[in-house]
User: Fold this.
Amino acid sequence: MSWANGVGTANVTLVVAVAVLVGSGVYLLLERTLTRVVLGTLLIGNGVNLLILVGGGAAGGAPILGRTPIGAMSDPLPEAMILTAIVITLGVSAFLLAVANRSWQLTGDDEVQNDYEDHRVIERAEHREADEETEADTDTDERPEEPGDQPEGAG
Amino acid sequence: MLVLLVVHVLAAVAAPLLVRGMGARAFYVLAVVPGAAVAWAAVRTPGVLAGHPAGETHEWVPAYHLYLVFRLTPLALIMVYLVAGIGALVLFYCARYFRPDEPGLGSFAGVLTAFAGAMLGLVLADDLVLMYVFWELTSVFSYLLVGHKATSGTSRRAAMQALLVTTLGGLAMLAGIVLLDHAGGTSRVSALLEHPPGGAVVPVALALILIGAVSKSALVPFHFWLPGAMAAPTPVSAYLHAAAMVKAGVFLVALLAPAYAAVAPWRAIVLTLGCVTMLLGAWRALRQHDLKLLLAYGTVSQLGFLIVLLGAGTANAAQAGAVMLVAHAMFKAALFLFVGIADTRTGTRDLRELSGLGRTAPVLATATVLAGASMAGVPPLLGFAGKESAFGAFPGDPAVLAVLVIGSALTFAYTARFLWGALARKPGVPDTPVRPIGPLFAGPTVLLALTGLATGCALPYLEPLIGAYVGAYPGHADHLALWHGLTVPLGLSALAITSGLVLFAARFRPRRLVRFTADHAYDQAMRALDRLAVHVTGFTQRGSLPVYLGVILATLVVVPGGALVATGLGRDLFAHAEPWDSPAQAVVVALMLAGAVGTVRARVRLAGVLLAGVTGYGTALLFVLHGAPDLGLTQFLSETVLTVLFVLVLRRLPRRPAPSPRRPKAAHAALGVIVGALVGGLALTMTGARHQPPVSTGLPAAAEKGGGKNIVNVTLVDVRAWDTMGEVSVLAVAATGVTSLIFLRGARRLPRLGRHKPPPGGVWATRRTAPGALRPLRPGTVARGAVRWLSAVPTLSPERRSVIFEVVTRLLFHPMIVLSLYLTFSGHNTTGGGFAGGIVAGLALLVRYLAGGRYELAETAPVGPGLLIGLGLVAATGTGLAAMIGGGPVLGSTIWHAEVPLLGEVHLVTSAFFDLGVYLIVVGLVLDILRSLGAEIDRQVGEEAA
Assistant:
């Protein structure tokens, strides 16, 4: 069989397609517009699917018994993996687009905003506000300085 | 023994129901459970004393050599009596202690019973890992018990402190257990005691295990959690600090000491910490006004004492320790229970306010004095017998002996202070009014005090039990007795009692030794931890998506990229390269490159989507050219659905994205180029680096066995069916996510024509042609007998209608559904399969929706996507489970041959049902997308326009 001869061959045309798809996808992925981020994941997805295909070796006939002699088939295992990936991409894109729609409902756009809560934590770390917060959390005012000085507790 | 534990679990589960039905009286019922454990222990005692420890083993995780293995050794027997006996009395006492309207009483009763069960399991376990499990269970349950008053900040803090300290120690102990297991080749306690392993690891293991014991038993430097835990209801304090929780550490030391006390760090750790704790606890007990806190610090002191005795590793010390262990459990439980009575019946625990309780409650007072006398070491009580043997157990160690005597003197002094403060009439303080104390309430206290007296007087009957444990030590222990003649220990006892009396008479109230306490250290450590958490979070969580993705991509560039450069230097990347398999590939790729670049450059959203579609369809063509028709088909179909999906969402979004103020475009482009080049380089290296035959050489044969000709499909539904199982689950989750993001107020059924009269011509009306501007077709304007091709089209806005589209849709829909089923079932042997079939059916629905609007969709698919996805999951998992029930591997397939009339010979492969499940799930996903992103958004748009 063509894929099983031990040494693989690299199809330069496909490798170029992989490189360009992944590269463009990365550029789109780094944007803040959610629909463009989704397009980025699609391009990267196509690129990576082709990468798996290239990894499976040279082209051949359809891996269907009786139609192609076993020796002339393309490698079926990467194909099974890619098939799974294609449909997953469909599901995940639908989800991301639903997120984009929700984002539009909330903000009127599909821009990915910075996380406000994370910024608050960064500010707290910079201003050493952790101390006050801790004390408020543990009710230090309720607690006697030393348990012996003031009886306290349940009965 | 497992039965006993199971009974505890059942009782714990039933407890809330019992409390709901019977109120606080439910505790009487619950007390029967540990009571049964005492009876069981009594039955087994003769056998254990005769040298036949009972044991039982059940399988747990045999692959990891984990067994539920229990063993009733003499030490375990002593502990069972204490844990279960005092547990039963405490539960009994709870019935009177709590008012019926106490909040959370039901769960409290359950947790307390569960705690008793966990403690029982801990002392019976003959395997260190199993013991660790029970150990941590007691920590968790004690957390819940101490934090019973959840509304009080003090209570919550104390519970958290106890949990953190004891689980921290528990983790150290687990590490020690793993090391010891490794050194000894087993975690079985009996084996580790019989053949203690040697080697350099053992001292480390013991030190770690001792950290666990010391933290659990509240020894310095972990002593601070115990007084804090006094925030618990008093019965909990009585149980946790007399018989259970803190005794777990003592028990562990007593268990391991016979075999390991001689190993290097053991005695140093145990004696030092024990002595310091004994003095510190007693010293601070003398400073307290709150009776409960006085007892708490007294407990700390006594725990130090117990650890010194049981950890010393000699027969005499161990004998003294075992006697003190029993004595302490009884007197401390009695005293705590007394404090609980005093507290609830007078309203105070402050010894400056209590007065005259000795006169007003004489029976209870007598019992309290008896228990206190045992604690102080006064003859003829059991506490005296224990101290007497302790003073005789360290003849060669004057320093330890001195600490024990000083500690005992302080113990006498704080006991006297306790009894005086609790019972005496004080000058200038009026007698405290006492509400009636029933016999059932006082009963446990009196019983415990009397047992202390009885065991002290009946030492010969106790001796065999203690002796059976002490027999594990080398050497021989002295005879246990109250009177040994005029000996040095007797003199030391007298010295301790006299000095204690003097200290009390002189009203000795020690000053605070240091201002800085371990409790403060705990606070500062917690604060530092919080600060660290904020810093780490602030450093790693920057809150910006591009930053996160940039970090991930940079890691990709640095790590695999670095490896590629390091190994690929000087190697010809193109050694195994060839330009193409067929020139057609180059043509397709050229188109795709144009599409990719165009997608990046497109500023209008829709243009970007269409150009990305070019790369998608191009990929499909490449699949076909490569010899992968299944992939090509699926990619074509899925790309089509995706394009429509994008259009459905994009119709609401602004045409162009708003220009973002901060856009480091050059940096993004550079990262894109680098990652693209890296992945290309990896692809070249990867294909050239292959030197093993691929695993897929076995797939053709597997396909033959799986009864199919299409190897890719058989791989999906049979060979790698688990993968597919996971994948369809992801699809189900994604569909749920889409639904929940669009249907904000719960998933509704789509309105259908029959029930809901839609305004004609209202769907997809544009602003230009508002409803009514262009009149819809009325009955009569169309010739009689004209065919209505789709049932819901009158709901469409007239300018949205296309008769040609309607006719084509009507003609295509059913063939498409048939085709989808054909693809699904023939996919096993030729191009197709559940995925492709599902998408074709989805496209059929899509066409109906586009031609007829949302009412048409509802008419076409009256079932919800949830039903389809659910049925699909049932079919897929059902196939897997059926194969397992049939005795084969999960998801394995079987082939049936049958002769069917008319059809001839039929082969049925069970994996066809699996593929049918995949089909249903994919149809469900597409329908879900159409319903949410299509129909529901239509409805929302319509509402907004109205």
